[in-house]
Amino acid sequence: MAGYSSQDNGRGRFGELPPLPNFGQNPIYGRKPSQPEYIPYNKRGRDFYGRLSFNMGLLWLGGFTSGAVRGFVDGWRNAASPAYKIRFNSVMNGMSKTGALWGSTLGIVGKCLSLRRCFGVMLILVDPLLFSFLAHMQRRAL
Asked: How many other CB atoms sit within 10 Å of the CB of residue 74?
């Protein structure tokens, strides 16, 4: 092997490397380096933006996944030909169309639920038609 001899003791031709410098990585909040460093958190739970992104993301993912499964079934059944390429194209079209539709719809529902919980407004109970209209308009705006 190039650059290796039995007298290197396994260190290669560069010998012992110096330790890496500390690039300004100081302990947070003035703790000593021997103590563990914990990430600060809110004891009351998630704040508004954390809850909003969690609810929207979880519902979007669930809607996209279930819509993709439904689109797969519809694409498989409604393929114009039993040929592999045609059926595969039909399945992909169905998954992307239905998955995106259900995902964005449920993401907006998650947004509305987070806003309702934050502001204390019972938007769903006041007028279900208004809630449905707002969800539809927000989804179309995407």
From this structure: 17
Total structural domains within the chain: 1
Q: What's this model's pTM, rounded to 2 decimal places?
A: 0.55
Distances (CA, A) of 81 to 8, 43, 75, 85, 94: 68, 58, 11, 9, 15
Residue 7 lies in a domain: no
* Residues counted in the chain: 142
6 in a domain, yes or no?
no
Spatial contact of 74 and 98, defined as CB atoms under 8 Å apart: yes
- State pLDDT tens for residues 17-59: 666 666 555 555 555 566 666 677 777 777 778 888 888 999 9
Asked if residue 8 is part of any domain, the answer here is: no
pLDDT in tens, 67-113: 999 999 999 999 999 999 999 999 999 999 999 989 988 888 888 77
Residues spanned by the domain of 119 = 48-141
In a domain, residue 115? The reply is yes
